[in-house]
Amino acid sequence: MSSSSTGPAEKVIQAARKLLHSLVNSGETRLRLAVIELQEERARLFSLLILTGIGIMLVAFGIGMLMLLVIVAFWQEHRLLAIGIASGILLLLGLLVLLRVRAISREPSLLRSTLARFSEDKQLLDEYRIDHDKVGEPREER
To answer: What pTM was estimated for this model as a whole?
Structure first.
């Protein structure tokens, strides 16, 4: 028996260390991905808040212009057209921004990539387990 050979217990310990090392590396990668996704979500929410504020402000200006239109309704005719067009444009822009905010807020994005990676990992582990449960059967080539 040579001193360079290792026994079965030593091989099991080395295999366990390799497995643990792989799990830690995989976990670290997934955690980094989750952190990046959380940072992206924070930026998306900030943009959402800014767009919401702009939309609310434009709608408020539009309502103000409509109120001015009602007040001035009994003045000369040319002012009415200008105020009506201005208020219509402001209301339209405000509503478009608010519709965009609504569309952005409905997009699922929180940890989407992380969850997809975990699903892939689970699928690969299931395939690996199934392959190793078939002891004595030839493996299929991929």
So the answer is: 0.46
